[in-house]
TrEMBL record:
One of its GO terms (molecular function) is RNA binding. GO terms for biological process: regulation of DNA-templated transcription. Residues 65-170, 171-283 form the PRD domain. It comes from the Bacteria. PROSITE patterns: PRD_2. This is Transcription antiterminator LicT. SMART domains: CAT_RBD. It comes from Loigolactobacillus coryniformis subsp. torquens DSM 20004 = KCTC 3535. The keyword Ion transport does not apply. The keyword Repeat applies. Keywords: Repeat. Signal peptide: none annotated.
Amino acid sequence: MKIKKILNNNAFITHTDDHQELIVIGKAVAYGKHVNEEVDESKIYKTFAPVSRGDRKLILDMINDIPIQFFQIAKRIVDKAQADDQIDLTDSVYIALTDHIASAVDRAKEHLFLTNQFIWEIRSFYPKEFSIGLWALQLIEQQCGVPLPEDEAGFIAIHIISGELGNRLDDFQAVVNFIKKLTSIVTYQLAIDIDRESLDYNRFVTHLKFFWQYMMYNNEKQSIGDLSNDMLAIIKGKKVAAYECALKIKTFIHQTYNYDLSNEDLLYMTIHIVRITENTGRQHDEV
């Protein structure tokens, strides 16, 4: 890979064979180098192919303003999310995380901390992403010597969630409210307290997140696991209470989002409701 323009010791611009511009970042990757010289590619952390002038300016400004250490930290967080948890993320997450972490560390040094008003929802509805956020706090403390509060784990999780949602960060609050409302319908309709730490509830929440994506953006439907045995139990056991609860949800979704659940949607919703309620011991007797 040849240098076309040096930005600083840790960044340079090059071009692909088809003349696409790439911004390359790596610790000391351009140190002592000159234009048209080859670089040691093992030093490269990340390459960006900006799709707009705005993206290009943002990346270049960050390279000038933010120490390379934070680019490396952000990459390790993104790599962990993608490798360990199979979360597919956009490049915009890397940029946003780098900027956020650098700002959070600067604020912490001044004893200024932000409160995350969604911390409970993130911990409850996005446990996988929140666990990555907690891991990130340990990494940041190791690398920067600055401890950050759990609120920051929530903010890091939000950036990861944003990447999963295709950078539609506004969707985060909408999805959270959607999950909260449907959960409250189940708890009220069936007069139960749901174990929000249970695997079945986690599957229910995951199903709702996928369903939201499909409902709002016509993405490909995704189901969680093999539900064939559960379908048979619904048919044989006549889980009327759960089915009636699913009908309440269908009505709510139609009235609120003008979306009609298909029979398949209704069946899957019923199955998940059965799963999260049948072991509580307080579900109403079914007809």
